[in-house]
Amino acid sequence: MSVTTAFTANEGRTYSSAPAPGFRLGSSGLVALSWLVPVLLLITWEVLARYGWIEPHLLPAPSKVALTAYKLTVSGTLLHDLAVSLLRAAIGFAIGGGIGFALGTLVGFSRIAEAVIDRSVQMVRAIPFLAVLPLVIVWLGVGEGQKIFLVALGVAFPIYVNTTLGIRQVDPKLIELGRVQGLSTWELITRIILPGALPSILTGVRFSLATAWLALVVAETIGAQAGLGFLALDAREFLRTDVIVLTVIIYALIGVVADSLARLLERRLLQWHPNYGAVR
Fold first, then answer.
1. Distance between CA atoms of 175 and 258, rounded to whole angstroms?
2. Given phi > 0 = left and psi -120 to 50 = alpha, else beta, which region is 273?
3. Pairing state of beta strands 5-7 and 14-16?
4. Contact, 62 vs 45, CB < 8 A?
5. Where do the structural domains in the chain lie, given as residue ranges?
6. Most CB within 10 Å of its CB: which of 92, 149, 221, 249?
7. Phi/psi at 80 (nearest 5 deg)?
8. Among residues 96, 94, 95, which one has the least CA distance to residue 124?
9. Neighbouring residues of 226: CB distance < 8 A, sequence distance ≥ 6
10. Which residues of 42-74 are buried (b: 16+ CB within 10 A; e: fewer)?
11. Using CB atoms within 10 A of its CB, is residue 24 exposed (0-12), middle (13-18) or buried (19+)?
């Protein structure tokens, strides 16, 4: 019997549950609604800036920021700095994500590994980026290694924690069912445990995407010669608030795009899951 039907013992008949009353939006309507508040904020910002309620040197109008973006794009400066930052974030994410997943899988499956690894990882995880930055500079200098290391460091922990948690939260009855069906240990891992842990792992990926950019912003403010962080820092020296606001907006847009890609990945990989199979 499906979850949308109910069986009555007295009459032996099946009834379809009626849809809940109320106004519903389609997927396109929900997407449009999600952009309503940002658009209203931009319009309000533009109006306040044009009529002098906001000082231009403190917060320039969106139209001026858009013009600055156009000029920097035509000159090639913006695209170059954006590409440099994206490359750093991608490399750091791949390294940190791989390490976090490997350690999380090991700790998730082994109590001995948890006793050996987890406490040290949690201690390092508690250290803020700014506290470890001077030591990283001493170790790696102010080149690309320092920036990629900080990104990898920030990315590793959310994936590590969520991978461990996801493996530990797999229903033991499913594992027992797999053993009854004669699945080998490898088949239990690949067909039951890891798929069951996948929602938590992908949640860690979403958190780590945000952390990657946070770490990169910190890293690019020290000794960088290119990148969005360098662009904002250089603009600060000349009081170019339009460029600074532009970099902030770019960071926000990158975050939205990254989170949308992570959601798309969730829908593709978790089609079998009742909470992810439907369009979100």
1. 33
2. beta
3. antiparallel
4. yes
5. 59-269
6. 92
7. -65, -50
8. 96
9. 80, 81, 84
10. eeebbeebeeeebeeeebbbbebbeebbeebee
11. exposed
Helices (H), 169-227: 172-180, 185-188, 194-220
Encode the chain (280 residues) as per-residue pLDDT tens digits: 433 433 334 444 444 444 445 556 666 777 777 778 888 988 998 898 888 888 878 888 899 999 999 999 999 999 999 999 999 999 999 999 999 999 999 999 999 999 999 999 999 999 887 788 888 888 888 888 889 999 999 999 999 999 999 999 988 888 888 888 888 888 888 888 888 899 999 999 999 998 898 888 888 888 778 888 889 888 888 888 999 999 999 998 998 898 888 888 888 888 777 766 554 4
Single-letter amino acid code for the residue at 198: L
Which of 1.10.1040.10, 1.10.3720.10, 3.40.190.10, 1.10.10.10 is the CATH number of 59-269?
1.10.3720.10
Computed on alpha carbons and rounded to an integer, the radius of gyration of the chain in Å comes to 24
